[in-house]
Model the fold of this input.
Amino acid sequence: MPPDTTQTPTASAAAPAVRRVTVDEGSAGQRLDNFLLRELKGVPKTHVYRVIRAGEVRVNKGRAHADTRLEIGDEVRIPPVRLPERPVQPEAPAREFPVVFEDEHLLVIDKPAGVAVHGGSGVSYGVIEALRRSRPTAKFLELVHRLDKETSGLLMIAKKRSALVNLQDQLRDRETGKTYAALVWGDWPAKLKVIDVPLVKFVGSDGERWVRPGKLEEPEAKRSISLVKVVQRTPQFSLLDVTIKTGRTHQIRVHLQQAGHAIVGDPKYGDFERNRELARGPAKFDRMFLHARRLQFTHPATAVEMALEAPLPPECEKLTKA
Done:
């Protein structure tokens, strides 16, 4: 007899099946559509909303709407949906970071420069993936806000959805204070204390995402406000405290650069020649000097006013004394 060449279907080729997911504390209070988008990563939004409208998604065996709020213990029936095949990404290595504050609601770390906050855009993983790997029993860990990969300093991670919603509301309503230490080239003008310049995001010819100064009449322009205080002057540099009143992408970097004083070491908007000389010179300084040093907010559960600080990293401290 000829050999049997019939192949057993692999798990990946198996037809998708109905799933029933019980809502836990990490998902309580979330809208049904957002819950499904997380559970069905990679499935187009249009398809997710279509199965909701068709009544294929059930909550506690009843029909539900996209804006239905889920509660702990709810059972969500997720219909068979074929997930798109995605390339296998390397697993994030487990890693902890210096803890500035932690309780059952919130974790605040001192992020090192050179580490992305999350995977994406060519980065396989970042802080949040590494933390989840190092804390496998944690039910909920989500970024409250973001820092650029090149920026060091204070980063908030919510440990409960209620904390995430509360803190993001504070950020949106400008009820938090975020102050950054920035070292810039040259002598910062003493009279320049407020930068109120709109910013526009765009994709350059290189395919990279960029930000430029804009005008308020431009449809894409977002009003952006930074408050600047000179902390120290040296023959080459000015050390600034920059408090942002809005949280736009690359806000500080572009605001300082458009004022004629780029941040030392900035690889995107900086003075590339001088940055190269600094990295190759005696200082061996090869990072961007932008550090989220102070964070003020109201604790999401206790309503206590919090003020957290992270000292300058040693390499930054050394450069200010050069």
